[in-house]
Fold this sequence. Notes:
The chain is of the alpha+beta class. It has one domain (2-120). Helix content is 17%, strand content 49%.
Amino acid sequence: MDYLVTVMHPQHSERTVTGEELPAAYAALKGTEANVSWGEEGSDFLILQVADEYCVITGAFDGGYYYLQTSDDDELVPVLMGDVDAEVPKGAIVPRELGLEVLLRVDDLPALRTDYMWVEAG
């Protein structure tokens, strides 16, 4: 299982890491503006916007886009998505550690989709 780690700031870089390398690569993202993705555009994929204390997990499944949410709080709040200011539901701002947990479970996507609450991204 391979993941693409992209750092936007302080210096742009991209690298592919294996599942074995992912925990260390994810931990090293502290103090950066970064995302981690799995899968291919046009099929099922995940992309995580990773901040120091939280992450936003977006999944593409069955032709739609969904946020993983830990609550049903749909108040829109500002976040940085890559290098773009965006708004996401407050419930989609999840603990940073959950991002790593989800990425490490992509080999069982059906369980991942039922074990967590996914809400259509508007």
